[in-house]
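Notebook entry, structure prediction.
Reason for the run: the old model in the group folder had no record of what sequence produced it. Starting over properly, with the input documented here first.
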Amino acid sequence: MSSISQNWMVFFRRLPSLFLGLFLFAVGIVMILNADLGMGPWGVLQVGLTKNTALTFGQVSQIIGLVVLVIGWALGFPPGFATLMNMYFIGLFIDLLMAGNIIPRSGSMLGQLALLLGGIGVLGGASFLYLNPKLGAGPRDGLMMGLVQKLNRPVSHVRAGIELTVLIIGYFLGGPIGLGTIISALTVGYAIQIAFKIGNYDSNAKHLNLFTLLNALRDQKVKM
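New structure, fully documented this time:
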């Protein structure tokens, strides 16, 4: 078997984990949205834009993902295959879940908290599943790392600055800020960290960008 054929087989074997992760990411977002306790910073912005446009929540997610992807690329971080899939399919899955009322709302505070915490846990597992194939991270990661490089500031400062800016804009657009916003800010990172530990994921693992992947799929000298 040629190296190209082996690379294609490796690529196809990674796709189920990627798309399951993207689907579960959408599930986690809709669970948090339906908890009605407030969203994380990007969710606040997305809901705010949904309220002020004729777009669906999923479509807003796709547009924001595209804008962030382009900015991150301009800053020197080209997208991966998974970055493009992240941008499109999470928004699509969100709209399908919401249109079908797959995830119900709860009328009790306990039920709302269960939805919120369950959604956060699902986001942690979903992050591992779509990052583990190493076909690219989400659009926001490219923006974050591009700004880290350009501004020469620590990742924590840049990430906090981005999320605070997004939160403020979303708030003035009418996005939902509440208890869930605080809980999400404090726990999503830990949920992802736990999922990474369970899955034995190396946070420093190198991802293939789109150009490297294309080279690997057409040149037998490049291995995945």
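Summary: The chain has a mean pLDDT of 90.
The old model has been moved to the deprecated folder.
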